[in-house]
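JOB MANIFEST
job_type = single_chain_structure
chain_count = 1
residues = 286
[input]
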Amino acid sequence: MDCVVVHDLFLNETANYAHVFLPGATFLEKDGTFINAERRINLVRKVMQPRNGMADWEVTQAISNAMGYRMDYGHPSEIMAEIARTTPTFSGVTYEKLAKASVQWPCNDAAPDGTPIMHMNGFVRGKGNFVITEFVPTDEKIGPRFPLLLTTGRILSQYNVGAQTRRTENVVWHGEDVLEIHPHDAEERGIHDGNWVRLQSRAGDTTLRAKITERVAPGVVYTTFHHPLTQVNVVTTDYSDWATNCPEYKVTAVQVAPSNGPSDWQTHYRALSEESRRIAPAPAAE
């Protein structure tokens, strides 16, 4: 891409490829609203000014104005007022109302105090629509080249790709992604605990350390996806669920073999990450 702009609180993995990085504000530096999974709209009040000098909405507004689309908001309440004018389920939401108590959308003329429980008397379409679907087996199959099944998952101490949690002491419990492999499968391949191994599928390959354990069954290997230097999803396939398009991360045919260390692309990516996070020294004051 010609120009990649990343606006975020952390230098995440996308920021490695950014031409411009704009620092975001923390939740302690924001005025605005937050909507949780309960549909509850809560008012958020900042306790300090943004260290970067601008709130997130001010950054977006400045970019819009610079690109020729005029925005003249003076406060997040004005943005909420526009949302209320243009979104029927939010038409009754105001900062004045939220200052007294949170509300759950829909909040409009029909439900001026919000809607704690939806669909009490029925769905919009009438009754619920239950659909029987046939089991659709995966197209991913093991074979002589890829005789093991890889499944991936998460660990309690890390969150998703770890952009936030890897910056904490949580790395004491989980400092890197490792490949869990059964003793029988490890012995067949001459793999010892802690060895570097190459994990390869029809889609790609990566390298990580082995952890020999009976926690996994013979024929199955397991790893997490919290560390970008592993990028285990370069190994997983493009298959997905037909109805929801949810990626099929739990079933990938793979082969595991001893390795001398990180692959070339991992070495290159580490260098890119370190260079992208290099902070240029500020010019000396005259």
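[summary]
The two ends are 38 Å apart (CA to CA).
The mean pLDDT is 87.
exit_status = 0
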